């Protein structure tokens, strides 16, 4: 990346989540929006926001912005999936095509 890129843009593509922030949000305290994180090296817990955990610096070295955009299309659908899990409507669905925004070619529609 060139030196002319903004710091915020650079951080987005360099700090790549290996656990989706949408998934991490499922484990947050509803009042604070934080979750408990445990530092494995120093062995202490702390409260963190989802954007502060579950990432690796420069995890994807080749075209990180393109990878981030591809992942975003999946991550944007997570709230609908978690909603169906939380209200138990997913359990009642008989076909994968009934899951909101499901586009998997592995399952027949």
What does the model show?
The protein is of the alpha+beta class. The chain folds into two domains: 8-73, no CATH class; 77-109, no CATH class. Helix content is 35%, strand content 15%. It has helices at 7-14, 21-25, 64-75, 78-86, 89-92, and strands at 15-17, 35-39, 44-48, 55-57. The strands form two sheets. It has a two-stranded antiparallel ribbon with strand order 1-4. Strands 2-3 form a two-stranded antiparallel ribbon. A hairpin with a 4-residue loop joins strand 2 (35-39) and strand 3 (44-48). It is flat. It starts with 6 loop residues before the first helix and ends in a 17-residue tail after the last helix.
- Rounded to the nearest angstrom, the radius of gyration is 17 Å
Low-confidence stretches at least 5 residues in length (pLDDT < 50)?
1-9, 102-109
Mean pLDDT: 75
Q: How would a crystallographer describe the biggest sheet?
A: 2 strands, antiparallel
End-to-end distance:
41 Å
Tags for this model:
single chain, 109 residues, alpha+beta, two-stranded antiparallel sheet, 5 helices, 35% helix, flat, disordered N terminus, disordered C terminus
What secondary-structure arrangement, pairings included, does this model have?
Elements: H1 7-14, E1 15-17, H2 21-25, E2 35-39, E3 44-48, E4 55-57, H3 64-75, H4 78-86, H5 89-92
Antiparallel strand pairs: 1-4, 2-3
Question: How would you sum up this structure in a few lines?
Answer:
The protein is an alpha+beta fold and 109 residues long.
